UniProtKB/TrEMBL annotation:
GO terms for biological process: cell redox homeostasis; cellular response to stress; hydrogen peroxide catabolic process; response to oxidative stress. InterPro entries: AhpC/TSA, Peroxiredoxin, Peroxiredoxin_AhpC-typ, Peroxiredoxin_C, Peroxiredoxin_TDXH, PRX_1cys, Thioredoxin-like_sf, Thioredoxin_domain. The active site is a conserved redox-active cysteine residue, the peroxidatic cysteine (C(P)), which makes the nucleophilic attack on the peroxide substrate. The peroxide oxidizes the C(P)-SH to cysteine sulfenic acid (C(P)-SOH), which then reacts with another cysteine residue, the resolving cysteine (C(R)), to form a disulfide bridge. The disulfide is subsequently reduced by an appropriate electron donor to complete the catalytic cycle. It comes from the Bacteria. Residues 11-166 form the Thioredoxin domain. Homodecamer. Pentamer of dimers that assemble into a ring structure. This is Peroxiredoxin. Its EC number is 1.11.1.24. The keyword Signal does not apply.
Length: 217
């Protein structure tokens, strides 16, 4: 989808993710199929390309860890179903990695345009390395964009999902490079009275606006 100046219309964080129904290597899939689960929707520029091959191998290797945190994977590129099938078979034959998650065949670029995956500065016909984290209510919670030349970190995507889930469950924020088990950031107080009391509330106190705590297992 483009606006009058031919710029991609970007989806917005904390708004409903753009709805879609599309053909995939596992049959037709819709966004509604993933309600009740977290979804990582990720695009790659083209099948049979080396950087994309490393990324898909990594997503496959991490798939069970995503499932452990109620998260499904869904790939996308502007290639055909037959191309996807041939490419995933090649990955299995050459790298010993089986791709078991579905891949959207977005030949008409409908999904890619709805999610702002087509960046005219990069290509008018290939999706950049875009990653979207969608929560169980179908709300877009995070977006990551990488150029075509550089592969993304699948481990970071998994860390981000866990971080979002922790924030939702406990009403906290997470610091830079946070990992499960590490201290989290307590929301800062909103009144002078609460700020004055913050030091005596039992948190790991640095200043009234910066306090951490360790979550109970």
């Amino acid at each position: 989808m483009y606006n009058e100046t031919s710029q991609p219309v970007m989806p917005q964080i904390n708004r409903p993710a753009p709805a879609f129904t599309a053909k995939t290597t596992h049959g037709e899939k819709s966004l509604t199929d993933y309600l009740g689960k977290w979804l990582v929707l990720f695009a790659h520029p083209s099948d049979f390309t080396p950087v994309c091959t490393t990324e898909y191998s990594a997503f496959a290797n991490y798939e069970e860890q995503f499932k452990e945190v109620n998260t499904e994977l869904l790939g996308l590129s502007i290639d055909s179903i037959h191309s996807h099938i041939a490419w995933t078979r090649s990955i299995k034959d050459n790298f010993g990695v089986e791709i078991t998650f579905p891949i959207i065949a977005d030949l008409n670029m409908k999904v890619a345009n709805a999610y702002g995956m087509i960046q005219p500065g990069a290509s008018d016909t290939a999706a950049v390395r875009a990653t979207f984290v969608i929560d169980p209510e179908g709300v877009l919670r995070a977006m990551l964009y990488y150029p075509m030349t550089n592969g993304r970190s699948v481990e970071e995507v998994l860390r981000l999902v866990k971080s979002l889930q922790t924030s939702d469950e406990h009403g906290v924020a997470t610091p830079e490079a946070w990992l499960p088990g590490q201290p989290v950031i307590v929301p800062p107080p909103h009144t002078s009275q609460d700020a004055e009391a913050r030091q005596s509330e039992g948190y790991e106190y640095t200043d009234w606006y910066f306090c951490k705590k360790t979550l109970e297992c």
